[in-house]
Amino acid sequence: MFISKSFIPILKNNPSEAKIKSHQLMLRVGMIKQSSAGIYSWLPLGFKVMKKIEKIVREEQNKIGAQEILMPTIQSSEIWKESGRYEDYGEEMLRIKDRQDREMLYGPTNEELVTDIFRSSVKSYKSLPQLLYHIQWKFRDEIRPRFGIMRGREFYMKDAYSFDINDEEALFSYNKFYLSYLKTFKRLDLIAIPMAADTGPIGGNLSHEFIILAETGESKIYTDKRIFDLNSEGTKLEKKSLKELREKYEQFYSVTDEKFDKKEFEKKISEPNRLITKGIEVGHIFYFGDKYSKAMGASVDLPESKKDFVKMGSYGIGVSRLVGAIIEAKYDEKNEVMKWPISVAPYDVSIIPMINKNDISALEKANKINFEFAKNNIEAIIDDTDENFSSKIKKMNLIGAPYQVIIGKQKDGDLLEFKEIGKEAKRINLVEIIKIIKEQKAGN
Ligand code: ATP
Ligand code: MG
Fold it and tell me: What are the φ/ψ torsions at residue 239 (nearest 5 degrees)?
C-alpha cells in the first residue's frame, strides 16, 4: 500500500478530546471516526487490526471445539420476558418498536437467544456438550461512553455459550474457555490475568475477569505479583490438566474491586508481593448453571427416562476493546512510537524511501523490495510522498508496523537499513530481512 493512495487520515497533533493514549492514537492515525456518542466507523487501519484480532479469537475458540454461529443483532423482546431480564436489564438496553408495534431490541448479549436456539433442536444428553459462539456487534446504552472504543455503546464482541449435562461437565467446559482465553491474549502479546469477579446481572456464582494492567483501566484490582510469572504452557484439553491450570493460578489471591477483602488480601500475600492497581477488562467468563435453561425450559433427556435442565456458562471477549487495550499496552506516547504485535499489525513492515523531485531511485528500489515482500506474504506500507525524511519516520512510528526499511541516498550494494521498532537499526540484505519477518510471523 502506498501512503499517497491510502485512506489513513493522519492528524498533525493529538486530538484534544481524547483523554487516554489509545483514543489519542486511534484518532491521530485515523483508525476510527466517531459517528455519534460511543458509536464509531472503523477506517482501514483500525479495521485491519480488529479483523486480525478477530481471527485469532476465532482460531482459539475453534481449538477447544466451539462451533461458530451468527445470531442477529436485533432480537424480539419475547425471549427476554421469558428469562425475566426484559425488565431487569434497564436503560442499557436499546428498545425499538417495529411497524407492527412489536417490541424489539438491539442485543446487548445473547444468553436468551442462544438458549432458544438450543432448546429447539437439542433433546438428548447424548448431544452434549455443546459450545457455541458468535462474533457480532452489541449495543449497550452505556451511561458514560468514553475513551473511544474502550467503552463504546456499539461494540464488537465474541460471546460463547456452553451447554452441559451436569456441574462437573459444565466446569470442564468453563475451564476450556479459561485456557483458550489465556492462549488468545498471549497471541495478542498481552499479559491478561484471570481474576475472580462478581457475576453481576448475568447471575450465577463462578466468574473470572481477564484483565490487563493499565493505569487508564476502569477496573481496580488486587493481586499477587507472582501471578505474572505463570503461563498455560503444557496444559492439555483434559479435565485433570485444566483443573491443575486453574489451581496454579488460584493459589495466588487475585480479585477485582467487588470481591476485595482486605483481611484476606493481607493474610494471603506478603507485603512485597502485593499489588493494587488498575486494569482493563478484556474478557469475562461466567458459570450460571440452570438460571436461563430453567426459566426458558431448556432441558434434555437423561438415561432412565429422566430429564434435567442443561447447565450453562457464557464467555465474552471484547474484540473491539482489545484494539484499544493493545495500544494502551504498547504505545510509547512520550516518544510517539507505536509497535503493534506482529500477530495483529496492520502492516508487517514500512518502507521509507528518501525521495526528491530529481531523484526517484529510492522509490524504485522501494517498489522492488515491496515486490519481494509480497511474494513472501509480507505486507508493506510504502511512503511514496516527497515529504521530508523526519516527518516520514514520525508518521510510520505512529502507524506502528513493527519493522522499518529505510532507503537513504547512499548506495552501498545490497545492504539495507533495517530496524525493528524500539531496537537499533542494522544493515543487512533483503534475504535476511525477509527471513526475520517471516520467522516472526510464523511464531504467531
Ligand atoms: P464492563 O464491566 O467493562 O462494563 P461487562 O462486565 O459489562 O464489562 P461483559 O458483559 O462480560 O462485560 O462483556 C464481555 C466483554 O465485552 C467485556 O469483558 C469487555 O471486554 C467487552 N465490553 C463490555 N462492554 C463494553 C463496552 N461498552 N465497550 C466496549 N467493550 C465492552
Ligand atoms: Mg458493562
Answer: -50, -50
